[in-house]
Amino acid sequence: MNALDIIQLIVSSSLIYAAPLILTALGGTFSERSGVVNIGLEGIMVMGAFMSAVFNIQFAAAFGGWTPWIGLIAGGLIGVLFSIIHAVATINLRADHIISGTVINLAAPAIGVFLTRAIFGAAQTGPLPESFGRTNIFLLDRIPIIGPIFFENTSGPAYFGIILAVVAWFVLFKTRFGLRLRSVGEHPHAAETLGIKVYVMKYSGVLLSGLLGGMGGAIQAQAISNEFGILTIAGQGFIAMAAMIFGKWNPLGVMGAAIFFGFAQSLARIGTYIPIIQDIPAIWLLVMPYLLTILVLVGVIGRAEAPARLGTTYIKSR
Amino acid sequence: MQLIRQHKTWLNNLLVPVLSIVFGFIFGAILMVAFGYNPIIAYDAMISGVFASPYFIGEALRQATALTFTGLGFALAFKAGFFNIGIAGQALVGWVSAIWFALSFPDLPRILLVTLSLGVGAIIGALWASIAGFLRAYFGTSEVIVTIMLNYTALQLTNFLIRDVLSESGNTTESVGENASLSIGWLSTLTQSSRLNLGFFIAMAVVILYWIFMTRTTAGFEIRAVGLNPHASTYAGMSAEKNIILSMFLSGALAGLGGAIHGLGTFGNIFTQGGLPDIGFNGIAVALLGLSNPIGIFFSSILFGVLDIGAGFMPNRAGVPDEMADIVTSAIIFFVGANYIIRYFVDKRAAKKEAASSTKGGDV
């Protein structure tokens, strides 16, 4: 393997592992910007992964190569449905955000595996007929050197995530909706006196997080594990939350952090091909994404500015 | 009058978990009907499966034993205002270290080996949790994310230890010797050789000790005070840092002890794990349902022990996947968490009866 091949391998596998994290972390950003902590993202990813796997198996014959992309939408929709639970519990029923999120994380794998057994008679779906695979990005892959490294044989969903990050940044910081969403996370009382419907904004934030988290899970199932089982989602939802904090709740920073964590996750798989890293014992590569997450949080927290009213219940004045 | 009011608050507090259990089971039934299963057969299989034989009653109580420890562990940190989501990881490191110790010193006398093995499990669990406590106290790092990351680290580390240190690239360790066994002859005979063991009595003792510690000692009072109002407690001269680390240490110690008892008492060895042990997250459920009260936790863990063992009867006798039990569990915790809706109706009724009655909100 020459240097270019190694760089190509690192970049493409980082992007493959980053794709689910980018979408989910963007979802978390919308939710937390509206003031609702959503540690249920992990469970929402599980449901997205489950739904997309079922969709993939049932409709591969009908949609062919487009199946994973439509499966992505299916995963996002089930994510929205599931996030409604979190929204109702935290916004209307005044439940603690962490408890409600924990309930979602407890329920999702149970419901996912329950339904998988009900549909397929086994705890796993088995391999999916159509996966995302690797794609060349149209035209960009023809650029010399940069083309082969970044745009050839790479992850389509990751570039979808990168585009979404730019869109999310625009929505949050350049539109009226974004301004209102952020104001609800910072100072809901002030927002309400200005006539902003606080509950509607909070619902939008949580439901968007469900959509993006479900899509993130769908990518994990259809691009990385290529099946649905209890182990398909193993902490990616939480790592995405760490990426969100690392990126300081700014979609572009969040995207960068997610790619960084994607790189850390990919090392356990491709480490054996890379000089120097192949000499590190496998156990270190396995625990590194988790330890890096902790280190990053310790390093970043002093400078990170969370939305001011994050995690608190807002009780509408009468 | 004061006494009656207190009695009423207590009754209302009890109403939340009881109604949550009822709603949780109803939710499970609706889901089963929706998927063409018969919920009555399923619940009957679950309940009668457990209570028909002393063996399965013993197994349910054995499961409850581990849940009591992990539940108390979560509750202790919760009282101090922290979410120790890392209970599962702490129980796992407690489990592997207790087995490791017992395998390393097989010739120590039984009372010493059992005590030391459990002690090692508790201390390793405590230290593992303290990492999160330390980072929270001195760097303000969210204990929720740190403990979750430590969970996955514990899982990978434990599997590594089993494969590369405790066995020769196998998936399971040797069983510990007779001297590290927790089984009690008469208890096994009574429950037709179920794996119910000494741990059950240790659990009951720890429930009492926990209650004494939290309500009758200065350290316990400080932990509760910090949980209720960190600013006021700091103003009153209590050290926030000290109490954060202490509560995470004790929380992890309980989880580690639970893991050690689960390991020595139930299995007598450790094997590579596909995921984090159930006793961790179910312990969180137990603590929330028990409203962080030690007696409540004890009874909640018995309920979840029965659910857990009873779930095993559902696939064969009712054709229902045993994940149904986990779904019911999460539904119960949903209603506990969203108790506003229950309290809303309870308070409304109370207000109708007695306009002046004032009911206080609970802990969860």
UniProtKB/TrEMBL annotation, chain A:
Its main location: membrane. Pfam families: BPD_transp_2. It is a multi-pass membrane protein. GO terms for molecular function: transmembrane transporter activity. Keywords: Cell membrane, Membrane, Transmembrane, Transmembrane helix. It is found in: Cell membrane. CDD domains: TM_PBP1_transp_TpRbsC_like. InterPro entries: ABC_transp_permease (IPR001851). Signal peptide: none annotated. The chain crosses the membrane at residues 6-27, 39-63, 69-91, 103-123, 158-179, 200-222, 228-247, 254-276, 282-301. GO terms for cellular component: plasma membrane. PANTHER family: GUANOSINE ABC TRANSPORTER PERMEASE PROTEIN NUPQ (PTHR43370:SF1), SUGAR ABC TRANSPORTER INTEGRAL MEMBRANE PROTEIN-RELATED (PTHR43370). This is Sugar ABC transporter permease protein. It comes from Marinilactibacillus psychrotolerans.
